[in-house]
Each structure stands twice: as structure tokens, then as C-alpha cells.
Amino acid sequence: MNIDNIKKEFPIFDNKIQNNDLVYLDSANSSQKPKVVVDRIYDFYTKEFSNVGRSVHYLAVAATNMYENTRVSVQKFINAKDKDEIVFTKGATEAINLVASTYGQKYLKPGDEVLLTELEHHSNYVPWHYLRKSKGVKLEFADINDEGEITLESIEKKITTKTKMIALTHLSNVTGAILPIKVITELAHSKNIPVLVDGCQSAPHLKLDMQDLDCDFYAISCHKMYGPTGLGILYAKKKWLEELPPYQGGGGMIREVKKEGITYGDLPNKYEAGTMQTAQVIAFNESIKFLNTVGMKNVMEHEKKLINYGQEVLRKNNSVKLIGNPKNRGAVLSFTIEGMHPHDIATILDEDGVAIRAGHHCCQILHDKLGLTASARASLGVYNTKDDFDKLNSSINKCKKIFELK
């Protein structure tokens, strides 16, 4: 991979931040966008715009075909069995809410348990919390180990005869731990328990294969995959989409509407009510093409080398404490500096054009478990280099001088 050439495809790196070259280490929050994605949105709105799935004029038919082409591209990218298993949503958050709401409505009753983990992002906790409040469902949490990981054993320990769903992240946005989803799914299915995976952090960084993982639901956030904001994907096995009720009602998701009743449209239209985010869906096809051109194996190799280098650099820096030490780590390094609040770290780094995230990263349960109110986080994209970690380390040393730390 020629990172210099890849970086040139992202217009934002042509800009100066605080009179410095941008060092963007916040891709776990949201990735930057290649020019092909930005241009595709502009071209669609200026030359091709129409609503999809309704009119029969040229623009409408063309837009519908492009929209559905993206669905096929997603199917192939994640190796889903059927294109009808791909549902477009407003984001991964809506994808998880869709499953929690519809599955909870049909299958969960008071006393039933949903098993989560201590690593979960709020988006994979709050929707299940609603069911705790509305239906008396109980939430259980698999514990992290000392390395910030969730193991098969920690999941198995919390499964009971009342466990009706396991919902867990594929890659932690704090510790970087990559969970053994395939073996967890095998365990769950041996006990007839469905599995939902929050794939927000994994989809941009790992080679995905839904038929191999065999999970029942998988949520993806497109804006973390070099794609547009306001768009997510729910992968769901066809049997679940056929069994579960619709999430929202409106145009586009119905077959026939009478005063006496309603019949719903075919999959996946049943779950895509109203006017969809057509430009974003069509532009996301360019994101997939971009990742396919780079190659996910190349992405994984590049980011593994970088994350190992970043750990090496930061561990040599006095006062810096890395959070978690998982055996299998993705492109995330969270850390603290003794004597400094993470928000102060991020503010000072920004003066050097180094963009990181500071806070609890929508993972308050995990931070509470670790005894932290917040942490600083450096996260990678395909455009990062070793030089970015060197600049991060240099800026951290500047922080320490300002706060008179050794």
C-alpha cells in the first residue's frame, strides 16, 4: 500500500489545522472521506436526483437501480447470503434500536434476560435498557478481564436458561479488544440464543464474512467506513426479517393499504419506511469500491503494524498509561496521563494539529469499571502513518512540560 497516494485521495489533508499539517487520529469517532465519495454526492444531487422505488420516469428508475446496486455491493463486501438481508438505516444506532424494538416486541417477556458486555457503547446498551423499563427485561453484563477483553468463558458464565439475546461489540472502541464473535455465536446457537453484533468499529478495519461469523444481526456505521453520515446498515438473517414486525410505518414499506388493514412490502422494503437517504446510499458504494481497491487484508496488515508501533512509542513515554492490553487488538489506543485530564490533553494536542478524542467515548459503564471519568483516545484510519504517532508523542511531551510532569 502506498499511504502517500491514499492520503492524497482525502481532500481534508490539504488543509492546515492551527497552521499545522493535520494528524487525524479520531477515525473511531468518524473517518475522513475520499474525494470520490464527496464527488458522488455532488453529482447525484446536481445531475441524477430523484426519489427511489416510486416513480417510473428515467431519473427515478436510474436512482432506484443505483440505490439497489449499493445493496448488492454491501452484500458482497460482508459476504451475506442474500441481498435482501441488507437493510439501510439512519445509522448503526437505528439498526440496533430496530432489532431491540422488534425482537423485544415479539419475543421478550418480563424476566427474560439480554446479555451484554462491559465494553458496550451506549448505542448497544440504551435500546435494551428501554426494554428493561417497558417490559421488565433483565440486563446482564459479561465482565472484562484484566487485559480489557471479553472471553468466551466470560460470556458462558453469564448465560442462563432465561438468556434470550446476546448483544455485544465486535471491536471495543476503548480497549481495542477484538472479540471472538464466531465462537461466541457457536456457543449461543447451541443454546438457541440469537446474537447481535455491534460492528461499528470492526467494519472499517476487519475482513467481514457474515456466513462464517454466523451471527443473526450485525450493525454497521457507514460514516466510520469513509462513507457519508446519516447512514447505517443492518445485516439480519432472512428468517429474522421475515418473522419480526416492521420497525416504522409509512410509504415504501407497504404492499397494500385498505381501511380494514395493511399488508407489508417484500424484504427489505418492509424495514425501509419513508424517503430514504438516497444520496448517501449511492455515495457509500464509492466507499466500498475504495476499500475494495485498497484491499481489506492490506488495511488489516497496515493498521496492525501501526498499532504495534503506537503501543511501543507510548509505552516508552513516562506517565502515559495505556488502557487494556488485549491479545487481539484493533486500531484503537486509549490512554491517560497521570496528572492531566484527557480534555486538557486533547486541547493541547489540537494546538499542534493532532486530532484525538477525549471523554468516556459513550462507554461510561466501562470507564466506571476502570475507575476513570474519561480517557484520551488515538484511533487509526487507512491514511495514518508511523509519523502520526511520532507527532502524537511529541505533542504529549509538550503537554507534560506545560503541566510540569516528568
Topology:
Layout: H1 3-8, E1 16-17, E2 20-21, E3 23-24, H2 35-48, H3 58-78, E4 86-89, H4 92-107, E5 113-117, H5 126-135, E6 138-142, H6 152-158, E7 163-169, H7 181-190, E8 195-198, H8 210-213, E9 217-221, E10 232-236, H9 238-243, E11 254-257, E12 262-264, H10 278-294, H11 296-315, E13 320-322, E14 332-337, H12 342-351, E15 354-355, E16 357-359, H13 364-370, E17 375-379, H14 386-402
Parallel strand pairs: 3-15, 5-6, 5-7, 7-8, 8-9
Antiparallel strand pairs: 1-2, 4-10, 9-10, 11-12, 13-14, 14-17, 16-17
Helix pairs in contact: 2-10, 3-10, 4-5, 11-14, 12-14
Describe this structure in words.
The structure is a single chain. A hairpin with a 4-residue loop joins strand 11 and strand 12. 41% of the residues lie in helices and 17% in strands. The strands form five sheets. The protein has a seven-stranded mixed sheet, sandwiched between helices. Helix 3 crosses helix 10 and helix 4 packs parallel to helix 5 (126-135). The two termini are 38 Å apart. It folds into two domains: 3-30 and 295-402, Aspartate Aminotransferase, domain 1 (Alpha-Beta Complex), CATH 3.90.1150; 38-292, Type I PLP-dependent aspartate aminotransferase-like (Major domain) (Aspartate Aminotransferase, domain 2). The chain has helices spanning 3-8, 35-48, 58-78, 92-107, 126-135, 152-158, 181-190, 210-213, 238-243, 278-294, 296-315, 342-351, 364-370, 386-402; strands spanning 16-17, 20-21, 23-24, 86-89, 113-117, 138-142, 163-169, 195-198, 217-221, 232-236, 254-257, 262-264, 320-322, 332-337, 354-355, 357-359, 375-379. It has 406 residues and is of the alpha/beta class.
